[in-house]
Amino acid sequence: MQGGYATVIEEEQTFSSYFGREIVGGMIDAEPGLWRKPHKQSFEDQRQKVLKFEQMWRPFDWTQNLATGD
């Protein structure tokens, strides 16, 4: 794992509401329009994306080992 940088945000009102999206968007070189003003999605569309991600993530989900003690 590579090193990184972290800081505590003490005055949250000085940060934009999309601060986290801005950071991730910059990391993946996304156009600002994608993260600053995302298009509206229905609840069902979001739900389907979550279920799909859950299936993709399952092989890497270390929390499943907590229940079995492995």
TrEMBL record:
Chain ranges of the Cwf19-like protein C-terminal domain: 2-63
A Pfam family assignment: CwfJ_C_2
GO biological process terms held by the UniProt record: mRNA splicing, via spliceosome
GO annotation, cellular component aspect: post-mRNA release spliceosomal complex
UniProt superkingdom: Eukaryota
Similarity comment text for this entry: Belongs to the CWF19 family.
Protein name in UniProt: CWF19-like protein 2
Native source organism of the sequence: Elysia marginata
